[in-house]
Amino acid sequence: SPVVSVSQVPVAEGKSVQQTVEILTRKLEVLGAEKQGTFCVDCETYHTAASTLGSQGQTGKLMYVMHNSEYPLSCFALFENGPCLVADANFDTLMVKLKGFFQNAKANKIESRGTRYQYCDFLVKVGTVTMGPSARGISVEVEYCPCVIANDCWNLLMEFMQSFMGNHTPGIPSVFGTKHDSVYSPADTMVQYMELFNKIRKQQVSGGGMR
Which GO terms describe its molecular function (predicted)? Predict the structure, then answer.
């Protein structure tokens, strides 16, 4: 799987989420990137049901069940700080059957959707991150198609991101640290989205640009 960087771009001063997304996509179009359809990544949070915990005041574990329109036949189940399981799409039906063990925190459903752009060997997805009815942030996913070893192409990725993200270009993703020279996988992308969604969930909704 090609190497991917997923990061958050802050809302521009005095602008809304939507206006900031438009500024970013305009920069991409000026570079010569072409629109190629849309994408969506979603994430539902499940927590261990109270009935499965002992009386020792254990805290429940969180599990995130995620989908990515790039992998329509897969479903990803991630544990905080834990493994990422890749299952087929029937996994969602299984989660319904496991409701005695895992309960869906429906209010926590979060997703990012937006437009895909192709530019030379790069695929860029600029998404609006929403929770419930409100736009909470902006995600930028950049994929370098020819390369499957993260360390081989990070500099190239960063150089390209700087061309339209400027000083919001991210540092190297933490998942790369554990990969070294091993092959990048779709699960690594989902871990990055999970981290981004958790960061956005924790951010206090401030007055700035959250309309």
Answer: transcription coactivator activity
CA–CA gap between residue 62 and residue 65 (Å, rounded): 10
Domain containing residue 34: CATH number: 3.30.310
Domain region containing 130: 3-42+110-206
Is 111 within 8 Å of 42 (Cβ atoms)? yes
Which residue in this structure is represented by tokens 């009386």?
55
What is the Cβ-side half-sphere exposure of residue 180, based on CA atoms within 13 angstroms?
0
Stretch 140-151: mean pLDDT:
90
Q: Which uninterrupted H or E stretch holds 90?
A: none
Average pLDDT in the 13-23 region?
A: 96
Task: Confirm whether pTM is higher than 0.85.
Answer: yes
C-beta of residue 116 within 8 angstroms of C-beta of residue 39 = yes
Torsion angle, alpha carbons of 40, 41, 46, 47, to 10? -140
Total domains present in the chain: 1
29: amino acid identity, one letter: E
The number of CA neighbours under 13 Å toward the Cβ of 189 is 28
Number of H helices and number of E strands within the chain? 5, 9
Asked if the structure places residue 85 within a domain, the reply is: no
Inter-residue contact 68 to 190 (CB < 8 Å): yes
The DSSP H or E segment spanning 191 is helix 186-202
The dihedral sign for the CA sequence 118, 119, 122, 127: negative
